[in-house]
Structure formats: C-alpha cells, structure tokens
Amino acid sequence: MKITEAEFIISAVRPEQYPEDALPEFALAGRSNVGKSSLINRMIQRKNLARTSSQPGKTQQLNYYRVNQKLYFVDFPGYGYAKVSKVQREQFGQMIETFLGDREPLKMVLLIIDIRHAPSKDDCLMYKWLRHYNIPLTIVTTKADKIPKSQWQKHIKMIKETLEADPHDRVVLFSSETGLGRDELWEVLLSQMEETTENTVASE
Ligand SMILES: Nc1nc2c(ncn2[C@@H]2O[C@H](COP(=O)(O)OP(=O)(O)OP(=O)(O)O)[C@@H](O)[C@H]2O)c(=O)[nH]1
Ligand SMILES: [Mg+2]
C-alpha cells in the first residue's frame, strides 16, 4: 500500500478521547518490547513516528496513528513488563478490556508475538479474550530476521500450539528490520476492511 499520509493523532487514556470519526481501527497487542511500535513504523514506512525503544514499557496509553485518512493503528501498551506497578497493571487491564468489549470501529486485533519465544501467559490470556469477544484476530510473528528461515515453520507451529490457536487463524511472518510480511499484512488489513463494509451494507 502506498502511504500518502501518516500522522500521530492522540495518546488516549479515556474512552472520551478516542477518535469519533469511525474510521476502521486495527489494534496491536503484545508483550512489552515485542516490536509493536516498530511494526507500525514499517507498515507506514516512517522511521520513528511510533515511538520505539530498546527499553520496555515505553508505550503507556492507547496511541492512535491515522494512515491515508483511511484507517487507524492503535498501539497498545505492552503487557508483562515487570517494573510496572500492580495498580498500573490493573488500570491497563481495565482500559484494554473496556476497549475490546465495546469499541465499534475496531476491525481486528494483531496479536504480535516474538517468533523466537513461546507465547507468555499474558499472550494466551489476550488470545482467549479476543476469542471471547469474538474479535477478528491475526497472529503476527515478528523479529523473523532473528532466526534462520529453516526454523520459521517449527516456531510458528510451537506458537500456535501454546496459544491453543484455531487451525484457521491466520499467521503472518514479519520483520520490521527487513520488511518481510509488510505486503501480506496490508492485504489482510485491507480485505478485512472490505469484508466488514460488505457486511454492514448487507445488513442495512
Ligand atoms: N531485529 C529486529 N528487531 C526488532 C524488530 N522489531 C522490533 N525490534 C527491536 O525491538 C525493540 C523493541 O521494539 P518496539 O517496537 O519499541 O517494541 P514495543 O512492542 O512497541 O515495546 P513497548 O512499547 O515497550 O510495548 C527495539 O529495539 C526494536 O528495534 C524486528 O522485526 N527485528
Ligand atoms: Mg511501543
């Protein structure tokens, strides 16, 4: 996809701050430091629009990025960061739960998993939440450049097994470093937008 415009819109902590223009939203969930912000930057071909850091726990709010006046990426705070206080963790849980349970423009959640490691308990919990709320999801295994190509399929199998994922769940291999998976992921997002538009039209 050709990016003509990409801008940071808001760091939202409360639902009143979420954009009201009803453009489709794609949220990114995953552990702290897994590469969510880097993935957004790669998707929109901007070096550092979404703030990245080698220090985990940088993203603390829901950060909205608008692309081509057409859709939003919503960068979630990473979970599982040890130095975050218990209160912060609970606030985070509530914020995400409210969002997932009641966010009409949300079209899909991208569950971002480091291809090198088994999903954590929090990843598994997030996966179950998404299923529970019936939210379309795509598993994105990132940092693929960090292991040899010959091991990709073995790791993907292990990740799906740990998540107890549905065999039909889509998995996109990704690397923010090399750009692997960028075109495929754009196809997934754009076709999801078309599908939901058709459903809306059909039900009217
Ligand atoms: N080699 C490689 N490094 C990556 C990739 N994606 C992210 N990184 C690195 O991983 C670190 C964390 O990336 P971020 O994008 O900030 O991670 P995040 O998930 O947004 O982290 P939080 O905001 O703390 O939740 C940075 O040092 C990135 O350069 C990738 O695909 N390949
Ligand atoms: Mg981040």
TrEMBL record:
<feature type="domain" description="EngB-type G">
    <location>
        <begin position="22"/>
        <end position="195"/>
    </location>
</feature>
<keyword id="KW-0717">Septation</keyword>
<keyword id="KW-0132">Cell division</keyword>
<keyword id="KW-0547">Nucleotide-binding</keyword>
<dbReference type="Pfam" id="PF01926">
    <property type="entry name" value="MMR_HSR1"/>
</dbReference>
<keyword id="KW-0131">Cell cycle</keyword>
<keyword id="KW-0479">Metal-binding</keyword>
<keyword id="KW-0460">Magnesium</keyword>
<dbReference type="InterPro" id="IPR030393">
    <property type="entry name" value="G_ENGB_dom"/>
</dbReference>
<comment type="function">
    <text>Necessary for normal cell division and for the maintenance of normal septation.</text>
</comment>
<dbReference type="InterPro" id="IPR027417">
    <property type="entry name" value="P-loop_NTPase"/>
</dbReference>
<protein>
    <recommendedName>
        <fullName>Probable GTP-binding protein EngB</fullName>
    </recommendedName>
</protein>
<comment type="similarity">
    <text>Belongs to the TRAFAC class TrmE-Era-EngA-EngB-Septin-like GTPase superfamily. EngB GTPase family.</text>
</comment>
<dbReference type="InterPro" id="IPR006073">
    <property type="entry name" value="GTP-bd"/>
</dbReference>
<dbReference type="InterPro" id="IPR019987">
    <property type="entry name" value="GTP-bd_ribosome_bio_YsxC"/>
</dbReference>
<keyword id="KW-0342">GTP-binding</keyword>
